[in-house]
Amino acid sequence: MRLQLVTWPDVEQYLKTSTGIIIPIGSTEQHGPNGLVGTDALTAEFIAHGVGEKTGALVAPTISVGMAQHHLGFPGSITLRPSTLIAVVRDNIQSLMRHGFTRFFFINGHGGNIATVTAAFSEIYAERSLQRGSNAPSVKCKLRNWWEGSGSRALSRDLYGNQEGSHATPSEVSLTFYMHPQTEKQVPMEPEVAPNGSFSDADDYRSTFPDGRIGSNPNLSTAAHGRRIYEMAVEEVARDYLAFVAR
Amino acid sequence: MRLQLVTWPDVEQYLKTSTGIIIPIGSTEQHGPNGLVGTDALTAEFIAHGVGEKTGALVAPTISVGMAQHHLGFPGSITLRPSTLIAVVRDNIQSLMRHGFTRFFFINGHGGNIATVTAAFSEIYAERSLQRGSNAPSVKCKLRNWWEGSGSRALSRDLYGNQEGSHATPSEVSLTFYMHPQTEKQVPMEPEVAPNGSFSDADDYRSTFPDGRIGSNPNLSTAAHGRRIYEMAVEEVARDYLAFVAR
Amino acid sequence: MRLQLVTWPDVEQYLKTSTGIIIPIGSTEQHGPNGLVGTDALTAEFIAHGVGEKTGALVAPTISVGMAQHHLGFPGSITLRPSTLIAVVRDNIQSLMRHGFTRFFFINGHGGNIATVTAAFSEIYAERSLQRGSNAPSVKCKLRNWWEGSGSRALSRDLYGNQEGSHATPSEVSLTFYMHPQTEKQVPMEPEVAPNGSFSDADDYRSTFPDGRIGSNPNLSTAAHGRRIYEMAVEEVARDYLAFVAR
Amino acid sequence: MRLQLVTWPDVEQYLKTSTGIIIPIGSTEQHGPNGLVGTDALTAEFIAHGVGEKTGALVAPTISVGMAQHHLGFPGSITLRPSTLIAVVRDNIQSLMRHGFTRFFFINGHGGNIATVTAAFSEIYAERSLQRGSNAPSVKCKLRNWWEGSGSRALSRDLYGNQEGSHATPSEVSLTFYMHPQTEKQVPMEPEVAPNGSFSDADDYRSTFPDGRIGSNPNLSTAAHGRRIYEMAVEEVARDYLAFVAR
Amino acid sequence: MRLQLVTWPDVEQYLKTSTGIIIPIGSTEQHGPNGLVGTDALTAEFIAHGVGEKTGALVAPTISVGMAQHHLGFPGSITLRPSTLIAVVRDNIQSLMRHGFTRFFFINGHGGNIATVTAAFSEIYAERSLQRGSNAPSVKCKLRNWWEGSGSRALSRDLYGNQEGSHATPSEVSLTFYMHPQTEKQVPMEPEVAPNGSFSDADDYRSTFPDGRIGSNPNLSTAAHGRRIYEMAVEEVARDYLAFVAR
Amino acid sequence: MRLQLVTWPDVEQYLKTSTGIIIPIGSTEQHGPNGLVGTDALTAEFIAHGVGEKTGALVAPTISVGMAQHHLGFPGSITLRPSTLIAVVRDNIQSLMRHGFTRFFFINGHGGNIATVTAAFSEIYAERSLQRGSNAPSVKCKLRNWWEGSGSRALSRDLYGNQEGSHATPSEVSLTFYMHPQTEKQVPMEPEVAPNGSFSDADDYRSTFPDGRIGSNPNLSTAAHGRRIYEMAVEEVARDYLAFVAR
Ligand code: NI
Ligand code: NI
Ligand code: NI
Ligand code: NI
Ligand code: NI
Ligand code: NI
User: Fold this and answer.
1) Residues near D34 by beta carbon (within 8 Å), at least 6 away in sequence
2) Which of B1, B2, B4 should be substituted to probe chain A, the one whose Cβ sees the most A Cβ atoms within 10 Å?
3) What is the C-alpha radius of gyration for chain F, rounded to an integer number of angstroms?
4) pLDDT at E134 over 90
5) For chain C, how far is it from start to end, CA to CA, in angstroms?
6) Separation CA F140–CA D201 (nearest Å)
7) Of the bound ligands, which one is closest to the alpha carbon of residue A166?
8) How far apart are CA E202 and CA A125, in angstroms?
9) Which stretch of DSSP H or E encloses residue E86?
10) Residue F1 distance to chain C (closest CA, Å)
11) CA geometry: angle at D215 spanning D212 and D217, to 5°?
């Protein structure tokens, strides 16, 4: 059930049976020569909608711009500063707390968001922790990267072995090809498999990873793979969502 | 051209011919008994994509949550504090400035965003204005409410007369029915046309406008109207976009 | 009754009969070749004191520096960043809420303040809206531009026709000549009536409006006009204040 | 020369001979049973205007609301949080730096501002200190309490001995009686001379100093004293201003 | 070489041969019935000094209070909000950047710091990434948890097997017993090995882990173990530091 | 009793007899040719531990980095911006308030901290003062510079006369020599006694005080003096602490 597509009386009804909600969060950043700038938001949203259908969970609008400062050397990348993203996550959660939601399950499409969103959860918890006998409601927040189920990991290993890499991976690119078949394409990349390494700011990133990829070969991506990856992720993430709200 | 659906080399190419970009911005808030919580973001995005197709402009991801504090009395509404939204707009623009974008055209779906987004533009301009001989690039930002063209106003007057109102209007609800026909429905509303008035915080709003509408009769909405409203808005907003980037 | 000129027991007494207060807000910025840098604060304060006398309302100290980033290309202009002005408005209101004030009526002298002050009101409302069952008091805030009554608009049309313009207008300059007759002067301006147009940051503003005026001919200003403008504005604004506190 | 009463070309002219400016800063807070809520802002402004006339210095608009959290137990008191006041001072100075001002002389009327304004100066200096080879201009800021000259201290000792106290003092009250003779009055106070002591928040302050005074007997105040106090302060502060800008 | 124990000319000399610096960061929080409140700061500092001696690296003062909101249910725990800790890390690094330091190696004693400090690094990088052709220096930051070397992990496994747990671990408690032998003690704990689990805010934490421990049996701790743990950690962390500054 | 060296049940016990706590605060900044960069934090901590032993007071971890923007012209100096330090002080106090502490006694080693820490106290008080009938606990905070007792002042006068100065003083340097005898050294300084004067930002400071000292001759320092200075300060500060918590 997508929050954007229902009415407020529908939400009122929903809250009688559940106080859990799913919030997709991605990023808007380069994904190498043939990956889409929207990859991380599109995949998080796609899987979140699948999980919403499977579990009946309400799905909030996607946070499409995340923490991507290191990608700013490539045109089209957009970042929120960590301090801004913390405020965004806080305001989303506090708004929903007002209505009675207590379990916030973020389905994440971007590794670069993990630290900041985790810090945001602590910022929210801290408000309550700092006041003895606070009457603010007790809430639980969880960040779930869509690719981290054991089945998802096994599938990516089977499909791509050590060419999966860690940015602009064939897994995520396949997912977008499945969603938007007209974007499927292969382009010459040199070397075939991108280098691995670490990075700090945007210039440092671009000089180490000149075409944007890290350790990956996204020319292996296909829409057919994307479908399998999607189904596996939805199944595993749905299971985790249900366990989370049951706690 | 949707930024989310292209690659970074595509954006690099685009920047050779234009430094303008469209950013849809909406809200996530109640829209009365039969209007969708996502109305303002969905309509802004829908029209922005239409304008993008018509003009060749690049369209950034939608800012789906805006300033909607007054709607928090109704389940499902989400707000950013004004100070948060200012930071979000600033980070989006500064990221895109880094790539060479200089004309930022926000297509807006929510009256409650106007003041804060306008303040955000001033916050960005102020950075440069406060430094004599700044070497930050000079940029221009514009907020365009999709419903404010003369043709759009005339059309809404023709279709709904004085039952258009100012929140949960039949115009915006028609647009969403056109986008998502499965959501089209009429529900009993009492009174038929909602009251007008002013409001301050969420409790005040809800006590004045018990079902969420202001001055409107959204039971007049149809998908067929939505199509006409869409086409008119795309045409007028596209014209304004082209004039804006030509300055 | 000016807050600055009474004692705290006087305020305690006042609160027994009214919880409304007037806060004048202006700006410190260039007003063309013969207009005063303090025009917007001086006029707002002048009219606020008149309204205070007419209605018995308490008048707080003037916020003399507002949001004027676009004027920084002209010596003497001072701005608060929008984020700072939001904090200033919030602290003023929260302080007065503590004493029991609930109706905050800002008399405004500067168009550039409108968006930011409106955003500030939402920032304050949001604090309460974000908490279900908040025990913070419910308050109402209103921004009233002194020149926006129908009588004031008609008077300026009669006196100046299409030479009123929108910055460094003969209306506001006349008001300051009435307040401070020793500042009345005419100076050569070229062209006689300034151009109209839009602007972004300070450099952009100065290059479009080289002497600071927008669309106006302030050489039409006289102290005698100022008196008529003053009396009309006081009457209309006083009426609006009384209607506001009666709600 | 009051900034509010001149035009931008006048300021341009002024900057050819001086880059110094005076900024009066006060507070809006209770001043005991017969002292005015505006005392600290009125006195700072009054003396600043006197110093401006004597020295030819430009005088900016008064910052009328300062840091007065401890007075909030008394109706009419308004405070800026320290963090807000820091932003206000920073924006005022950065705006004026843009025009070429480099010497900022704050004439202060309120002891409670000293710590925060001093911190604000450090916040401004820090921006430049944190960047090696910064191209931000080097500036100097000074806070001068109007009552701290040796002559002013001697005069208050002569007039009031150990009944001067430290809040709602007969010196400052006399100054306001001189400025606004119609406000001159004596009221019964018990005890005649208020207690001394320390305080933390507003409740603590009010329970220690029930009528608002600290250590003072403001019934000794007269407008005639005020004139002598004014003249002494103007003379001493003017001397300090000239020494400051000559450095 | 401890920064606190040298003079500025010593630092000037140091910078001629290295631009790397070590910053210990810990926490002030409960560590179960027999662990010290200062454990995380004391161990990080102790190991950092060891690494400094072994490598000749300069060691900055310890950040003793970290992000520990979840421990506030136990007396003595202190937290910085994530937003505050981000500002602290930023100011430390920017100050040192001014002197020419470019490699910042944080030796961390507290798992709860990881997300926030990582976000802080991104906040710093973002400043540079957001400006095309920024002239801010390029820097690299790294967070190294002292317990994460393969040797350290093996040692803890050998000594404590599955009674190491994840908070108030026998490893960290042994380290503090080695540093401060007078604090060594065993106390009755029930159950012997604490439960595992997750947590959100402080009340949630305390109700799940009533004596503060997570999954651990700190009664296994001895000062003799502490010495072995210390030596292993210093060796491994020193190696990583040298590799880091050589990049 | 050092907070870092006790367990949470020890703190729980302590709170049954006292709600006072000592927080040492210093700085990390140049102290001339032979003074240590850590002088202000080391001395504050040293004396705080002495006071803790003498009075039985609990001593929190030292805030080692303070407000030292003016020293950034000398390698090794680190500053927090005032706004950051305010947040740090606020978070420390709010954490401890949660446990029931109500009396916060900061032992300070650095003049540059005074304004900002005082502003921080007001920021904390303001939270409560701004809410009528707040249920936040009432607290008291005090900043005590270790050198300000009458005995300490007399001792420094006896030992160093007018060569004490105000930065890198022989008193504070002697204290560090007493604590860390291996750091005792004399180095050629020219002139023998440093100049006096004022300063603004870091470049201004360094050009006025080229070796970092202000008005002092730290070559007079000895460890033996340090011992006398230490004992005097501990005695006087302990007395003030006991008086403070008794209020
Ligand atoms: Ni990705
Ligand atoms: Ni709408
Ligand atoms: Ni004006
Ligand atoms: Ni006063
Ligand atoms: Ni630990
Ligand atoms: Ni010192």
Assistant:
1) C7, D173, D185, D186, D187, D189, D218, D219, D221
2) B4
3) 19
4) no
5) 21
6) 8
7) 1
8) 8
9) helix E82-99
10) 40
11) 80
Tally of residues, chain A: 247
Residues of D in contact with F90 (CB under 8 A): none
**C-beta atoms of C129 and A98 within 8 A:** yes
- Cα dihedral angle (A221, A227, A232, A236), rounded to 10 degrees? 110
Rounded CA separation F118/D159 (Å): 32
Radius of gyration of chain D (CA): 19
What is the mean pLDDT, run by run of 10 residues, along chain C of 247 residues?
A: 98 98 98 98 98 98 98 98 98 98 98 98 97 86 98 98 98 98 97 97 97 98 98 98 96
Question: Among F1, F95, F190, F221, which would you mutate to test the E interface (most chain E Cβ atoms within 10 Å of its Cβ)?
Answer: F95
The one-character DSSP state at C58 is E
**Rg, C-alpha atoms of chain E:** 19
The alpha carbon of B152 is separated from its chain's Cα centroid by a whole number of angstroms, namely 14
How confident is the model over F162-213, as pLDDT tens digits? 999 999 999 999 999 999 999 999 999 999 999 999 999 999 999 999 999 9
CA of E76 to the centre of ligand 5 (A): 14
Bond preceding residue A75 cis, omega within 30 of 0: no
Domains of chain C: 3-246 (3.40.50.10310)
**For E95-227, where are the E strands, in sequence order?**
103-108, 140-145
CB atoms within 10 A of CB C116: 28
pTM listed for this prediction: 0.98
Q: Which residues surround ligand 6, an ion (CB under 5 A)?
A: F 39-40, 172
Quick one: CA dihedral E1, E2, E6, E11, positive or negative?
positive
Q: Which residues surround ligand 5, an ion (CB under 5 A)?
A: E 39-40, 172
Is the ipTM higher than 0.90? The answer is yes
Residue D87, classified by CB atoms within 10 Å of its CB into exposed (0-12), middle (13-18) or buried (19+), is buried
D49 vs D55: CA distance, rounded Å: 10
Nearest residue to A68 via CA among E84, B62, B98: B98
Tell me if residue B79 falls in helix, strand or coil: coil
B8 and A95: CB-CB below 8 Å?
no
- The encoded tokens of residue F177 equal 């020599």
Residues of F in contact with D122 (CB under 8 A): 67, 69-70, 81-82, 112, 115-116
**Does residue C163 contact residue C216 with C-beta atoms inside 8 Å?**
yes
CA distance B215 to chain A (A): 18
**From CA C11, how far away is CA C6, in angstroms rounded?**
7
**Spans in chain D with pLDDT lower than 50:** none
Instruction: Give the Cα separation of E155 and E161 in Å (integer).
Output: 9
**Side chain identity, residue E42:** L
Counts of helices then strands in chain F (DSSP H, E): 8, 4
Starting at the earlier edge strand, list the strands of the sheet with C58-59.
C58-59, C20-25, C103-108, C140-145
**Average pLDDT rounded to a whole number, residues E172-197:** 97
The sheet with strand D140-145 has its strands ordered as: D58-59, D20-25, D103-108, D140-145
Of C54, C69, C62, nearest in space to C3 by CA: C62
- pLDDT(F135) > 80: no
Nearest bound ligand to CA F32? 6
pLDDT tens digits along D192-217: 999 999 999 999 999 999 999 999 99
In this prediction, residues E215-233 reach a mean pLDDT of 98
CB count within 10 Å of CB B124 equals 24
Q: Is F95–A131 a contact, with Cβ atoms under 8 angstroms apart?
A: no
CA E185 centroid distance within chain: 23
Q: What residues form DSSP beta bridges with C175?
A: none
Measured between its terminal Cα atoms, the distance across chain F in Å is: 21
| Chain D contact partners (≥3 CB pairs within 8 A) | B, C, E, F
In this prediction, residues B212-222 reach a mean pLDDT of 98
